[in-house]
Design brief:
Layout lengths: L4 H23 L10 E6 L7 E2 L1 E6 L9 E5 L5 E2 L7 E2 L8 E2 L8 E3 L2 E5 L8 E6 L5 E2 L4 E10 L2 E9 L15 E5 L15 E2 L3 E7 L5 E7 L3 E4 L5 E3 L9 E2 L6 E9 L8 E2 L15 E4 L5 E6 L3 E13 L10 E2 L2 E7 L2
Parallel strand pairs: 7-10
Antiparallel strand pairs: 1-3, 2-11, 3-10, 4-9, 4-12, 5-11, 6-10, 8-9, 12-13, 14-16, 15-25, 16-25, 17-24, 17-27, 18-19, 18-26, 20-23, 21-23, 21-25, 22-24
Length: about 350
């Protein structure tokens, strides 16, 4: 068969047109959703098989994308609750994050995919929200590379998690017990010679510091329960009885007592007191009353808690009758101790 040149030209033109139309289709790449700039899911617990709340964050690079929802697909093996359990909050977000626009309680849970409502997102902005109920998500068994996706407005990115056997570290520490005690002096004298008027000694101060949670107690013991003169054999004996009530030195009689006051440091948890059984006996008036001395330890003050330096001031108190034997060697020894109540 003989074809004319006109026919050959027409056929060639048709093939050329088909080539131009078909070849781009044959070589065209499959369209894919754009990726998010950043995407992550952070469960608040990574312990295996543990119910957890968590955080979802994403940043899109695409502008003018209409957002109607965000779909968070959790890894296989995670147990999900109903849509109503996926309540959300937008507090306590990472630094620089913005509350996810239009976010609300999930509207659908299908298999591992949870759909939340969303408004339009601004490009180059990190948006975040929390799912706030532990009934929503329970972690899978332990393992690495637990993958899922976050998709919003045609943008989608994958993420990965690691679930471990235990995600908590128990921190332990020890605070050592401390206790310091000191006396301002080891001798004490009366401010003036004894007379028929009550006289106070200059006094000695005990300073106590401790971190004992229940505070401290201070005790005093008298060697003689009296001021004794070796040269004359004369005695100025203590007076009264130990009954949580101070004793007054009355005129015309001998008497020897101990008056104890204190200063609370004001730092720490403790308060210094002289309660019944803990120093009320020695809570005198720094004039003519004080506590009866004993040859066994008697508590003179106590604190209820820690302190960086409470002070206990101890002053002897004495008066004599007009016929008390004269001597310059009247003496007694007080032993002062204290202990922390840990």
């Amino acid at each position: 068969m003989i074809h004319s040149s006109t026919q050959r030209t027409a056929v060639l033109g048709i093939f050329t047109l088909l080539f131009v139309l078909v070849i781009p289709i044959l070589f065209a790449e499959k369209a894919e959703a754009a990726g998010l700039q950043q995407a992550y899911v952070r469960p608040d617990r990574l312990k295996a098989s543990t119910a957890t709340t968590g955080l979802v964050c994403a940043k899109t690079a695409v502008t003018d994308v209409t957002e109607s929802n965000v779909v968070v697909t959790f890894p296989t093996g995670f147990t999900l609750g109903l849509a109503a359990t996926f309540t959300v909050t937008t507090t306590n977000l990472p630094s620089g994050a913005t509350a996810w626009a239009g976010i609300g309680t999930a509207t659908n849970v299908t298999s591992q995919a949870v759909t939340f409502p969303s408004s339009n997102l601004t490009a180059n902005t990190l948006y975040c929200f929390n799912w706030s109920s532990t009934t929503a998500v329970t972690n899978s068994t332990a393992g690495n590379d637990k993958t899922g996706t976050i998709a919003s407005g045609g943008n989608s990115s994958s993420y990965a998690l690691s679930i471990i056997s235990d995600d908590q570290i128990v921190v332990t520490a020890t605070v050592p017990s401390t206790f310091t005690f000191s006396l301002s002096a080891n001798t004490d004298t009366f401010a003036s010679s004894l007379s028929t008027t009550a006289q106070l000694s200059n006094g000695v101060t005990a300073t106590i510091a401790t971190n004992a949670a229940s505070g401290w107690v201070a005790w005093v013991k008298s060697a003689n329960a009296a001021l004794n003169s070796a040269s004359t054999g004369a005695t100025i004996a203590t007076t009264g009885s130990i009954d949580d009530t101070p004793t007054a030195l009355t005129g015309g009689t001998n008497g020897y007592l101990l008056d104890v006051t204190f200063t609370d440091s004001g730092t720490g948890t403790g308060t210094v007191t002289q309660a019944a059984g803990y120093g009320a006996e020695y809570d005198g008036n720094s004039s003519n009353t004080g506590g009866t001395l004993s040859t066994t330890f008697q508590p003179v003050a106590a604190s209820s808690g820690t302190t960086d330096g409470d002070t206990v001031i101890m002053k002897s108190l004495a008066r004599i009758s007009a016929v008390q034997a004269a001597a310059s060697d009247y003496t007694d020894t007080l032993t002062v101790v204290a202990a922390g109540r840990f």
